[in-house]
Amino acid sequence: MSQFPAEVRIVEVGPRDGLQNERSPIATADKIALIDRLSETGLRTVEATSFVSPKWVPQLADAAEVYAGIARRPGVAYPVLVPNEQGYERARAAGVEEIAVFTAASEAFARRNINASIDESLRRFAPVLERAAGDGVRVRGYVSTVLGCPYQGAVAVADVVRVARRLHALGCYEISLGDTIGVGTPIKAREMLRAVAGEVPMAALAVHFHDTYGQALANLLACLEEGVAVVDAAVAGTGGCPYARGASGNVATEDVVYMLHGLGVRTGVDLDALAGTGRWLAALLGRETGSRVGRATAPAPAPDPAEADAG
Amino acid sequence: MSQFPAEVRIVEVGPRDGLQNERSPIATADKIALIDRLSETGLRTVEATSFVSPKWVPQLADAAEVYAGIARRPGVAYPVLVPNEQGYERARAAGVEEIAVFTAASEAFARRNINASIDESLRRFAPVLERAAGDGVRVRGYVSTVLGCPYQGAVAVADVVRVARRLHALGCYEISLGDTIGVGTPIKAREMLRAVAGEVPMAALAVHFHDTYGQALANLLACLEEGVAVVDAAVAGTGGCPYARGASGNVATEDVVYMLHGLGVRTGVDLDALAGTGRWLAALLGRETGSRVGRATAPAPAPDPAEADAG
Hints:
Chains A, B: InterPro entries: Aldolase_TIM (IPR013785), HMGL (IPR043594), PYR_CT (IPR000891). With 311 residues, the first copy, chain A, is α/β, with parallel strands linked by helices. Chain A has 13 helices and nine strands. Chain A has one domain (9-310): Aldolase class I (TIM Barrel). The radius of gyration of chain A is 19 Å and the shape is globular. Residues 242-247 and 304-311 of chain A have low confidence and may be disordered. The A-B interface holds A 1, 182, 184-188, 190, 211-215, 217-218, 220-222, 244-248, 252, 255, 258-259, 261-264, 291-293, 295-298, 300 and B 1, 182, 184-188, 190, 211-215, 217-218, 220-222, 244-248, 252, 255, 258-259, 261-264, 291-293, 295-298, 300.
């Protein structure tokens, strides 16, 4: 296992992918505080919000307000999700310098989730990517359902490769390969990544795992052995695909960082500060943190006098 | 990753290691039902209980009753934990055919947890192992704190190797290497296993991970690549070391089986039946299952009429 990258860049997706899929909305000021706290932990990429239509995702209707409110730290990128040219214009008006676009490897998922075929979604991105290139705006591309789809079941690796290659050809500097419903296991994850890396440089690839079946860190380990050096994760394990059964969301950033540091891989992230932010966010959301590290490192609760009496 | 074993034997430790460390006791009849349900899923080893002094572990005071009650299936082993000769005699009187003994790689943990130095614990086992050999009783050995100790912190790999070698020399047919507090990460887990396998045949080794920091499946993957083919796990992720902070217990058997099947490794276990048993047990314990697979595969709840009204 000596072929691990020396350093991994974490793309923190909690404020967007995470909060978008949580039941309890949080206040705009709290979203801003979350992003600021995250950017102070040493994370270099914090996905801030999404300029989708507020009709579709009311949780993110405050996108421009959030983006305007964050204290932008030098060296930290704050990409935002953009679904189309109207979203791009709103994002640019808000001062956004990096965006992300989103499609799927599964035709069935694309049609249900973004109301377009995969090809239509790519055609929709083309003018956004052209304008972004002209404006000096960097674009990240997401491919979802790379290891399985809630509607069609299996997803062919060739379909993942095709979509990733097209996003790269359209100008995305990085393609994030997402196991949206968390069904993948390590050999399948590794083979998928290897196939994509045959067409798109590994340096332009990221992996994005959900922990629905508890497989995220094992899948990540297999992909790190393959050489991937960019990893998406969400603080406190927030989010989750609303179409997937089970309560589990994105792999928790804290758990990813713990593993990477244990492997001797640098992330630049202060794990204690990150875990504290995760517990703070979970409290805001009114639920327990989805990070095992966050739970294991929580300060011991004050002794309960009733229990102390009982010995 | 082609060097994975074709088949893995799961040692289900939920009824003993799991229930011993749960807050809510369950009834003797439920313990028996749990063991019977588990043995019907295809598991070949189900650790049934512990013949420790009821003064020390009152949750397990019904050991003889449990052992007498289970419907023993041909081909399934039901080992029980035995701390000393008195325990061995009680176990034998109950008809037990396989036992397990328990010590630690950390001197500080041994003194606090079993009230003996490591050497004293091994001396205590010697007559038990002698009698077991004479009686045709197989003995499994546990080594705890192989990747860290809550009292002394780091544990030297050489200490793990020494204890494992001695248990093997004393006659244990299998040595289970336990990351009791779940702090390990994959490279450390793999290096520890590799060092032990330099002195004890890999075929006589098992790994035992706790999911306190979410690392269990990643550690397991690294150890499977190294060739280990016996894995301890607890249905519903029950248990956990009471000395470790954080609520997480043993790695959930369901999540282990899901990964193994995804890797093409045979276990002989019916995952649906196992996940159902885990949810049944969690309901008995009055808490959510600790298995992600158990949650993800739970039957959808009946629609809530109040929510249906809200659209």
